[in-house]
């Protein structure tokens, strides 16, 4: 009764919750929008099928309802292929078929045991919004993080208001039942699991814009994508993280870091005020004098200060002349120096030093094409790193005077839509035919080369869509006919391609704050992370670096990639972490400006001065 291909696909779900936001304009899973529990979204059904295949949960009435609520509309196939290359429709069909076959054979339907705590939770939020059905619980029980095991919660509850959150926390405290709060998805660090109560904020979706004060108030369940979409209607931007992540959760946990942090800041820079429910069920606001001092930073692993039920966030104005630009480099040192110089001079809004894995994945509709285009960028064109910048026309004019080579948005659109032909030999022969002492990309990226490359690459939605499965070609043609899909400003504001970094495997990011005036320190961190990964046979890639505080500091990401279903790979990560954490701790003790992310995690409301200038 279990389909092995479906089981394999289900096990590979990344838990990034991209199927819970309408990031492609395709609509959302109908049952998920109505029911709100993770189990009614494609992500949850993947977990449910995997659990059934491994005899971890019984067939219950809740499971039957979840399976039958799937309309097989196909939205999940489009969304998940764009992000991970997975095709979850086979899992959705297999789940429905399994349940119907089970019922035809008169299989036993298990009922839930009575639980007085569940009754009281339902008394707070309503009968529909609290459950202990195993089919729902299992969707809150694990994620791909390799160092934690599955933990089935006792109950899941979906409050709608702050006052309901207060009552749930007070109930939990009186009954000595642990709880965790959950945003939109899981956690790549295994931080949202409990055998007690899971408080899912998915129903807390309020957004209120104050245009006079340039602020927006967002409730706990509002995602980055949805908030960005709403404020963009009014000519503003917010500094947010991954599109499916809840804004309040990211503010508390990580302080929001992104390529925009060069201009918009991190930590407390991203907050005007916030409302919390603490562990005793008391309400406090960040700006109250009697509130806990969350602006301060302590160099220790700290628990979350409470449940952030809403936050008041600054809005940033958007000008009509903003565009993206890429500056290629043959070495990391050169790219870093250029990015730091831009930051020191306050040129540009978003700035990052990107690795080729990031850039090729950003551009490519498939993992295979990304792998091949990365090789072309490195080996044929000599591009090892690129500095990515969003700026207005004055910033772009300044950048073009600072460098002889730049890829503007027109050129990037040409490269993206012509990417499948970029791998052909015709244009490579053209580049190699130029005799020059310059890097190949210096010839390739000349403005005068654009008409020649357009003739060779024949950029079009037809060319682009030739790289995907036949039944997805029409969808990708329609999708990339929309100008925003090749617009660096839009893509970077909404960050819908950042989740592609884990397209071929789950990504485990190492995040480190670094001093940008100590290049040797940064190089040492990169070298050690690469050495440890090679030592244990872990796939790894440089991610990005964004300058902060006018080029004084920066945030560095380096990524390990693992197959989350492979126990041997999990063990490799365990061994690697045992080496990396002491290395970063020791380096931080010796070097000002170095700070591993484990200390900042859950202290995201801190003033950045507290952890950047210890």
Topology, element by element:
Blueprint: H1 4-11, H2 30-35, H3 42-53, H4 61-69, H5 75-83, H6 89-104, H7 116-125, E1 130-131, H8 134-137, E2 155-157, H9 162-174, E3 179-182, E4 197-200, E5 207-210, E6 215-219, H10 224-232, E7 236-237, H11 247-253, H12 261-264, E8 273-277, E9 283-285, E10 307-314, E11 316-317, E12 323-329, H13 332-344, E13 350-355, H14 356-363, H15 367-380, E14 385-391, H16 393-402, E15 407-408, H17 409-417, H18 419-422, H19 425-432, H20 440-444, H21 450-457, H22 461-465, H23 473-479, H24 488-494, E16 506-515, H25 519-535, E17 539-548, E18 553-562, H26 567-590, E19 595-596, H27 597-600, H28 608-612
Parallel strand pairs: 2-4, 3-4
Antiparallel strand pairs: 1-2, 5-6, 6-10, 7-11, 8-9, 8-10, 12-14, 12-15, 13-14, 13-17, 16-18, 16-19, 17-18
Helix pairs in contact: 1-3, 3-6, 4-6, 7-9, 14-15, 17-21, 25-26
* Largest sheet, strands/sense/barrel: 8 strands, antiparallel
Q: What share of the residues lie within helices?
A: 40-55%
Strand order of the largest sheet: 15-12-14-13-17-18-16-19
CA(first)-CA(last) distance? 59 Å
**Runs with pLDDT <50, length 5+?**
none
Oligomeric form = single chain
What is the percentage of strand-forming residues? Answer: 15-25%
Task: Output the radius of gyration.
Answer: 24 Å
What is the tally of beta strands? Answer: 19
Number of helices: 28
Structural class: alpha+beta
Domain unit count: 4
- The pLDDT mean sits at 93
Query: Which overall shape is indicated by the principal axes computed on the Cα atoms?
Result: globular
């Amino acid at each position: 009764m279990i389909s092995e291909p479906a089981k394999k696909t289900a096990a590979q779900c990344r838990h990034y919750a991209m199927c819970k936001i309408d990031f492609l304009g395709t609509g959302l899973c109908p049952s998920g929008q109505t029911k709100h529990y993770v189990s009614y979204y494609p992500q949850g059904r993947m977990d449910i099928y995997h659990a059934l295949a491994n005899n971890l949960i019984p067939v219950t009435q809740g499971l039957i309802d979840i399976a039958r609520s799937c309309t097989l509309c196909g939205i999940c196939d489009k969304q998940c292929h764009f992000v991970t290359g997975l095709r979850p429709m086979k899992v959705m069909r297999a789940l429905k078929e399994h349940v119907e076959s089970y019922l035809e054979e008169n299989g036993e339907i298990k009922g839930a045991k009575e639980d007085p705590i569940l009754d009281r939770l339902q008394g707070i939020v309503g009968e529909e919004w609290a459950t202990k059905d195993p089919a729902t619980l299992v969707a809150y029980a694990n994620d791909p993080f390799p160092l934690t095991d599955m933990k089935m919660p006792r109950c899941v509850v979906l409050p709608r208001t702050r006052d309901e959150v207060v009552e749930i926390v007070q109930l939990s405290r009186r009954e000595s039942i642990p709880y965790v709060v959950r945003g939109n998805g899981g956690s790549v660090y295994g931080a949202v699991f409990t055998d007690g109560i899971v408080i899912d904020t998915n129903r807390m979706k309020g957004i209120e814009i104050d245009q006079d004060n340039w602020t927006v108030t967002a409730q706990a369940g509002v995602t980055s994508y949805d908030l960005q979409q709403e404020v963009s209607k009014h000519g503003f931007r917010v500094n947010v993280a991954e599109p499916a992540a809840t804004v309040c959760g990211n503010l508390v946990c990580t302080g929001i870091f992104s390529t925009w942090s060069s201009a918009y800041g991190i930590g407390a820079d991203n907050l005007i005020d916030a409302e919390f429910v603490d562990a005793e069920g008391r309400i406090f606001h960040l700006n109250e004098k009697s509130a806990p001092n969350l602006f301060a930073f302590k160099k220790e692993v700290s628990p979350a200060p409470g449940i952030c039920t809403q936050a008041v966030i600054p809005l940033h104005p958007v000008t009509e002349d903003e565009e993206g630009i890429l500056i290629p480099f043959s070495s990391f040192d050169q790219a870093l120096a250029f990015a730091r110089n831009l930051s020191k001079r306050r040129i540009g809004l978003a700035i990052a030093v990107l690795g080729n894995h990031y850039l090729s994945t950003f551009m490519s509709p498939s993992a295979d094409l990304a792998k091949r285009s990365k090789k072309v960028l490195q080996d044929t064109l000599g591009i090892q790193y690129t500095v990515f910048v969003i700026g207005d026309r004055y910033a772009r004019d300044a950048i073009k005077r600072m460098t002889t080579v730049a890829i503007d948005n027109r050129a990037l659109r040409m490269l993206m839509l012509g990417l499948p032909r970029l791998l052909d030999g015709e244009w490579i022969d053209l580049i190699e035919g130029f005799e020059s002492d310059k890097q190949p990309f210096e010839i390739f990226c000349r403005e005068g080369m654009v008409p020649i490359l357009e003739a060779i690459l024949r950029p079009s939605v037809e060319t682009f869509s030739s790289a995907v499965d036949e039944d997805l070609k029409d969808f990708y043609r329609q999708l990339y006919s929309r100008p925003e899909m090749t617009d660096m400003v839009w893509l970077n504001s909404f960050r819908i391609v950042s989740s592609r970094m884990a397209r071929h495997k789950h990504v485990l990011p190492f995040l480190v704050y670094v001093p940008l005036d100590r290049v040797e320190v940064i190089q040492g961190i990169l070298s050690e992370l690469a050495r440890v990964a090679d030592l244990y046979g872990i796939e790894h890639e440089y991610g990005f670096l964004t300058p902060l505080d006018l080029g004084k500091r920066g945030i560095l990401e380096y990524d390990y990639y693992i197959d989350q279903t492979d126990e041997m790979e999990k063990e490799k990560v365990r061994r690697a972490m045992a080496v990396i954490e002491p290395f970063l701790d020791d380096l931080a003790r010796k070097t000002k400006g170095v700070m591993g992310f484990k200390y900042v995690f859950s202290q995201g409301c801190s003033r950045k001065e507290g952890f950047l200038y210890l």
